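Handover notes (outgoing to incoming on-call)

Open items:
1. MFS family permease: sequence verified, structure written out, both below. Nothing else pending on this one.
2. Nothing else urgent.
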Amino acid sequence: MIFVSARFIEGAACGAFFPAAYSRLALYTKRARYMGEFSFLINAGLASGVAVTGYLVHTNIKSGIILFSILTFLTIIFAVYHFIVPSRTIGKIELQKKVSKKEYSKSHIFTSKDTRGIWIISFILAGSSGVLVSLYPEYGIDTLSKTELGISISLLYVSTMISSLLASYMDTGYAKLIKRGIMIATVGIVVTIYSSTLGFFIIGTGSGLMLVGLPIAIASMKVEKGIAMGVYNTCIYAGLALMPLMAGALAKSVEIKTIFLMTAILFGLTIFLSKD
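MFS family permease structure tokens:
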């Protein structure tokens, strides 16, 4: 119960952090660059955290939890300092945020055709990755060692890091980033059927482009940024939770290879939801 409670609190904290972080970054003029760097750091943290904890677990099984607690405590100190001593930049951003709340209708977030497309794309993007990560250990049980499987999945995060950082410096509109990301990731899902390392690398490359393009798309729309970014992150986590669950239930009667193909088709169809 302690473990489950701790995970719930951790998830609630992440759910509160991401919309606030994205909505703040959306108010900068260099938001594309900052969102790309933000995505890079998220995935760098995921990759390094898993790697470091995997190493520390040989010394003490609780080492990862202790490290997490220490890092979280340091983050609290940093956050409290900036709350007490706000910079001029932060004060200006908060002023802009208050103005934007008065300008835009909240209902537009749900009724707009463009935003509905983003919510669906976000859901399927996260869900597709979740399906592959959850089912691939069983799919590759006879062909991949645990080390090879770990390397393959880690490439998903590494390539996402690289492509999201590169995308932040590209002079490309968010629509093109999203479309290219969908096409690349769709190809990657199909490739995973035959090659885990190459497939996951390609998926990560496409995902990195989308993880920059989607927040920029939201930031460019005339919607209240805080609520919009909250809905965006809700769709991401909903996809991660629900699609692997549905795929797992489907795996009882359908081959995993077929599920991967179905996932690729579903993902590929989202290109028609992307704004031109």
